[in-house]
User: Which sequence fits this backbone?
């Protein structure tokens, strides 16, 4: 796990032969180290892109000493691909017009996810970014409302600040700790007073589990429960960016509902480690999904 933190990696191996390619973001160089050939070479960002296009998962990489290593691409869990059984299921899936809510396969997915999360209803969407965006928009009915979220959260760092540019929702960041949590006291201080017309209105608190920028850390259930209690006390909504929620379930050895029971809404990606080529599902109560 420590090997994978703070960078994207491509691991290659054959028996005892190991080669690692570290792709550090933000225009830093990439270093290739091979324990089998004991050579080190420096790759530019352009070269590493060419490398990974040529040597993607399952392909052999050839070294000058004649040894071969097989590539396992670990740059991201979105690189997982459907297996034969999944492709067969896709080809044979019963389909219909989802605009009229007549696609039986989509309805089954939504029903299954809602049951797994202990929610009333669910909605299939094309991407995790869309899932988070429309969740925030459904919770924040007016422009100028505010969301409290971690300063290292995917919602805050990436996703083009969609909640701000599309929905007019103001972010209020709190400092993420290394384990993906943040100070409950700081969060409480960031909740706006309801009697001051000069300030935005706090409406949503957002968590991320597992936490991407914090090394894939799993949020403790006690922390989620504590945040939920504060949200309820102040009549706020708790949204869970659960793009990799199934990883958290596996790590904790618990069903999804043990995590999501404390949340008002959740977004989960089907394309991150689960093999689906695209898609996410958001879940919450019926009013939320209808909005």
Assistant:
């Amino acid at each position: 796990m420590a090997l994978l933190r703070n960078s994207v990696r491509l691991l290659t191996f054959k028996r005892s032969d190991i080669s690692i390619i570290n792709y550090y973001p933000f225009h830093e160089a990439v270093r290739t180290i091979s324990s089998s050939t004991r050579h080190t070479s420096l790759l530019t960002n352009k070269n590493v892109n060419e490398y990974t296009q040529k040597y993607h998962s399952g392909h052999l990489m050839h070294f000058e000493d004649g040894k071969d290593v097989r590539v396992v691409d670990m740059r991201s869990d979105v690189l997982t691909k459907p297996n034969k059984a999944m492709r067969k299921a896709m080809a044979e899936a019963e389909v219909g017009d989802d605009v009229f809510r007549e696609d039986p396969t989509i309805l089954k997915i939504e029903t299954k996810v809602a049951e797994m999360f202990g929610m009333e209803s669910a909605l299939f969407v094309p991407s995790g970014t869309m899932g988070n965006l429309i969740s925030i928009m459904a919770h924040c009915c007016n422009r100028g409302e505010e969301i409290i979220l971690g300063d290292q959260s995917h919602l805050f760092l990436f996703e083009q600040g969609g909640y701000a540019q599309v929905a007019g929702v103001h972010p209020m960041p709190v400092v993420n700790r290394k384990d993906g949590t943040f100070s409950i006291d700081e969060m409480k201080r960031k909740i706006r007073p309801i009697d001051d017309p000069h300030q935005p209105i706090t409406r949503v608190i957002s968590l991320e589990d597992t936490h991407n920028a914090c090394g894939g850390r799993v949020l403790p259930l006690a922390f989620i429960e504590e945040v939920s209690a504060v949200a309820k006390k102040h009549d706020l909504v708790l949204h869970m960016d659960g793009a990799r929620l199934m990883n958290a379930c596996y790590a904790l050895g618990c069903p999804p509902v043990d995590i999501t029971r404390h949340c008002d809404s959740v977004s989960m990606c089907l394309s991150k480690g689960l093999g689906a080529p695209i898609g996410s599902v958001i879940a919450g109560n019926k009013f939320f999904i209808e909005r």
Confidence is low (pLDDT under 50) at residues 1-45. The two ends are 39 Å apart (CA to CA). DSSP finds eleven helices and 13 strands in the chain.
